[in-house]
Amino acid sequence: MKTVTIYSTAVCPYCQRAKQLLTDLKVPFSNVDLSQDTGLWEKTAQKYNWQTVPMIVIGEEFIGGFDDLNKLHQAGELMKKLQAD
């Protein structure tokens, strides 16, 4: 299974929803809290050309935020995307 990384903040409701979805699906993920490190947030935002949290990465692929993650799940594509190449 590919690794999943969520760049988030503690007070972001969409971050919480993304983490809950992955937890419900029993998909392990690592969480990077950006709320205490504005430099890391700026660097990550620039890397993925994305200004808001969550920023969700599967393997090496940036997929977007919660809406994008949920859209993949609803379409039945999320678990396929998580499979290792």
Give structural notes:
It contains 4 helices and 4 strands, in the order βαβαββαα. By secondary structure, the chain is of the alpha+beta class. A 4-stranded mixed sheet has the order 2-1-3-4, with helices on both faces. Helix 1 links the parallel strand 1 and strand 2. The model has no long low-confidence stretch (mean pLDDT 94).
Provide a compact summary of the structure.
This protein is α+β, with helices and mostly antiparallel strands and 85 residues long.
Can you give keywords for this protein?
alpha+beta, 85 residues, globular, 20% strand, 4-stranded mixed beta sheet
Strand count: 4
Rg from alpha-carbon coordinates: 12 Å
Number of alpha- plus pi-helical segments: 4
Structural class assignment: alpha+beta
Mean pLDDT: 94
Range of helix content = 40-55%
Give the distance, in angstroms, between the N- and C-terminal Cα atoms: 9 Å
Q: Main sheet?
A: 4 strands, mixed
N-to-C SSE string, H for helix and E for strand: EHEHEEHH
Q: How is the topology of this model organized?
A:
Layout: E1 4-8, H1 13-24, E2 30-33, H2 38-48, E3 55-58, E4 61-64, H3 66-74, H4 78-82
Parallel strand pairs: 1-2
Antiparallel strand pairs: 1-3, 3-4
